[in-house]
Amino acid sequence: MLDLLWLLLPIAAATGWWSGRRSTRGSDKSRPCPALPGDYVKGLNYLLNEQPDKALELFVRVVEVDSDTVETYLLLGSLFRRRGEVDRAIRIHQNLIARPHLEGQHRATALLELGKDYTRAGLLDRAEGLYKELLSTRYLKGEACYELQKIYEQEKDWLEAIRSAEAYQSTSGDSQQSVIAHYWCEAAEQQRQAGRPRLASDYAKRALVRDPGCARASILLGDIALAGRDSAQAVKHYARVAEQDPDFLPVVLPKLRASYAGLGDQSGLSKLLSRFRGRKHDSETILQVIRDLLERGEEPAAREALIEEIGKQVAPVRLLREYVALEQTRFEGEAAASLRLVERVLGEHLQQWFAYRCNHCGFRAKNLFWQCPSCHQWGTIKPYDSPDDNLSGGRYV
């Protein structure tokens, strides 16, 4: 279908030209309608003979750009870009912009399309200049802000991305609050890596102002506090994640354990784990409960809790490995050796386990990404704990 459209576009352009000519002479019945120019026929022959450069040369040279034909040529340029032939798309859009009598709306559309051509070609500075030029007109400002936002994302210029996202939100009415919160978190990460934890903390708090439900900002604030040996503040930030998004409990539970260890408050950790266990049944939560029981010397209770959860969750691999490791203490000789072998096999399987999945496109990964590498959505990747897929291998992207 795409190839058919590719062949029909020049015909549509020629038809538009012919219809325009015909309409100007429609009132004069004595004058014959003009025939299609020979150059269009030549252009079609070039396309059919797989000589698109020669065809493009003819179409660009003979086209009469007006309200009847400009949409066709914009579509032609867009099709070139989608086919990966960016140089040809650039040529068409540059030719349209160069026309002195092109009306404002069409010129703005050509500028926008040319900016997309440059972005596709990796010429981000040129694309940025075109989008900023669009902002000085009364056309397509929202689209220009959105494209600038994406450019600054690529360049990791998060403060400029925030400004563009705010402008896009104001122009289009499309909420960008969650995305802006992630931008503030990205800026905070930059400052943290640069050795400026105070500024990083300030940026992370701005993320929470934008999106009070941003679990990432709370995790980041907890990490900054824990690195600064402020265990009390770390506990405060990590514990807030349970209210913001319980799906991220597997991420913060090991951090909470370290924070409570810094406070020397084993009872506080036990109470928190007990509360979490009642709200969410994922492997990490249960594992932290089991480890807490073992640290307190309550091995029978740990074993009982494991058996109970394994029965509920159809034996997820992580809990099975923990159970096998615990059972080794009850056996000796060949039985213990067999259990060690089973534990090792389960551990090797977990090495291949994709622990995170994008809820938007299904992308799976071993590490947490805040922006999906596949669909580029923000905040859609979350911890993933499916017993069926972990045992069978699942469908990984």
If you had to describe this structure to a student in words, what would you say it looks like?
- The structure is a single chain.
- The chain has 397 residues and is an all-alpha fold.
- It has four domains: 37-172, Tetratricopeptide repeat domain (Serine Threonine Protein Phosphatase 5, Tetratricopeptide repeat, Alpha Horseshoe); 175-261, Tetratricopeptide repeat domain (Serine Threonine Protein Phosphatase 5, Tetratricopeptide repeat), CATH 1.25.40; 277-352, no CATH class; 355-388, no CATH class.
- Helix content is 71%, strand content 2%.
- The protein has helices at 2-24, 38-48, 52-62, 70-82, 86-98, 104-121, 124-135, 141-155, 158-172, 177-193, 197-210, 215-227, 231-244, 249-263, 266-279, 283-295, 299-312, 317-327, 333-351, 387-392; strands at residues 356-358, 364-365, 381-383.
- The protein has a three-stranded antiparallel beta sheet, with no helix packed on it.
- A hairpin with a 5-residue loop joins strand 1 and strand 2.
- The longest helix has 23 residues, at 2-24.
- The chain is elongated.
- The two termini are 28 Å apart.
- Residues 32-36 and 387-397 have low confidence and may be disordered.
Question: What descriptive keywords fit this protein?
Answer:
397 residues, mainly alpha, Serine Threonine Protein Phosphatase 5, Tetratricopeptide repeat, 4 domains, three-stranded antiparallel sheet, 20 helices, 71% helix, disordered C terminus, TPR repeat, iron, transmembrane helix, iron ion binding
